[in-house]
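User: Hello, can you help with two protein structures?

Assistant: Certainly.
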Amino acid sequence: MDSKKLLIITYYWPPAGGPGVQRWLKFVKYLPDFGIQPIVYIPENPTYPIVDENLLKEVSDKAIIIKQKIFEPYQLASFLSKNKTKKMNSGIIPNQKKQSFLDKVFLWIRGNLFIPDARFFWVKPSVSYLEKYIVENNIDTIVTSGPPHSLHLIGLELKQKLDVKWFADFRDPWTTIGYHKSLRLSETAAQKHKKLEAQVLNTADTIIVTSKTTKTEFEALTTKPIAVITNGFDVEKVEKQTLDTKFSLAHIGSFLSARNPQFLWESLVELMAEIPDFKSHLEIKLIGAVSQEVLDSISAFGLTDYLNNLGYVSHEEAIAHQRKSQVLLLIEIDSEETKSIIPGKLFEYLVSNRPIIAIGPKGSDFAEIITETNTGVFFDYSEKIKLKNLILDFYNQYLEGKLQSNGVGLQKFSRKNLTEQLVQLLTS
């Protein structure tokens, strides 16, 4: 029996690094096990803010990859300021009070001229190419993955032109995502974003989201079926790691300006003053892109001597650090808009056997996962005393050599199980 063909339209694909690439890279890995032939459509010459060549070896040899050239204005903007465009491209937006004139100009252009985002120039050539490809290859099901949400506009046009079943997969929300407010949108631009979002939500056959809160938000905008399929963890072949000798608190992934947890830095400073040996053991380990505001804050609290800022490392290396760090930090912006965000790295954290300190807004979706899996403790931004007490408790367990995590019920978040959920949805 021939495999069912599935066309996946995505921007992030190896050698892209960072969290955006993992979801569909892993779905594609397991889809053939369930009788589905993945055909992945990607840009031929993308501007990826993070590159991880190691991920190329994770691409399934059963996947068919098709490519078309893309024009991205980042390529032009980088002539003005390569560093600024790269940071903005990776989601690091400077704090509003600290934005330079050039920052404000870039944000205004990004928000008002490139709607929904800077990849919208890829929509028309992609529709033209894929319309023909879909017909010639008898494809009846397509998936678009966003952000960038321009890719949903490709799905929208293909759905209007052809008899295809379209699944719109939202790895993150659209108009309610944390950085949307930072884009200096005019009223006209804001309305255009909302109109396009509504069109996508009301035209796709099924919407896929990664959290319950996003599902609830979208239910107010559409009557189309909405399925929650979270991100997950894969079975990573990582050599057994020796734990750090220091009491290392590791944050892995982008550390954005608005994620800066002042009360965590305060707690560490107070513990250093109260416990003589604490400072000789402490290590703050940051892995990934870190905003200048976070580094300035660490410096202002006098913690620079305890900072190990490793920058971006390969996904393989990041997994190794997750397994050998004493404590893992998961930090989300303290705002209503970020309750729905479940960081992809959470699922890798779950299977690292290291305890998690999670910080986010009250009612965060990821708090529920951490609690139900017994993998760590969640704090909202008002719980400084509780946070400080937990760090002290973890520190004492570290001194006794007993600090670890004992997760329960993790298997439901395995990539293979999640792919099975996806296949049931695609074929129902």
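That covers the first. Now for the second protein you mentioned:
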Amino acid sequence: MKQTRALLEGAILISLFAIITLLVVYVPVIGTILLFALPLPMILYTIRHGLKLGIWMGAVSLPVVFIVGSFNGLIVAFMSACAGIAMGHFFKRKEPGHAIISGALIYMLCIVFYFVISIQFLGINIIDEAMTQYRQSLDIVETVVKQSGNAEQLEKQLKLMEEQLGMVQYLFPTAIVMVGAIFSFLSYFIAKPLLRRFSPDIPNLKPFRELKFPQSVVVLYLIIVMLSFLPLEKGQMLYSIALNGEFILGFLIFIQGLSFIFFYCHKKKYPKAAAVIAVVLGLMLPIFMAAIRILGVIDMGFNIRNKVK
């Protein structure tokens, strides 16, 4: 009876998974939103029946998706199925934080895998094509500006944009990390109402004010900062490591600083608007962002939360 019920639920959720995949592939606006809900069938099935049956469901669903959704549907479904199974496994163990981290790692690995496949087998380099199109757009804008007569100031802006473009092409690893984290968080927040209904004993995430990264983040960030002072040339491996490390670790330290601000406002019973204003200023003004990063370094390095009374 239990096996029959598991098969029936698996058939229903595979059908739902295939339908959502079709909407993601063929309905642009709605599909963009449903993309983050695509791991839901895998999450629910893995929670209810365990990791082993969850993997079996994922394996069975992929041929079904390929038949109804073509190769594009298979690409989307594979990534979402893997992330959903991993997240469902940790949700079953009542570890929502690990579920989000595992989902983010799966998304990142799948993006890297697709990127390698596109280069090795299809001969398509997504980064080079994007850079080429962007440079062509800059050339068109430069031609129009020269013809209009207002060339001096706009040419300076175009040169600045070209310099920034040269830096952006080395930040592909940072983009992968950000996309993976965003996808995983959105999948969790979409799944949360259903998780509460089917597994009410799954705990909530800790409040943002209690977020605390390990001290090793500060140590790595200081190493990366010292590395950036070396005469590194573009194209070198160390240049790419220093650039991406500074962005990723700097962002984590910025988040740590914001977490401390929320913690401080909570302890002092200040209104939440004060913390929200700090977030807005930090995102808009570079000087506030630098101040919040310094606060994050101090919080991680010296544990100043214990001194807040």
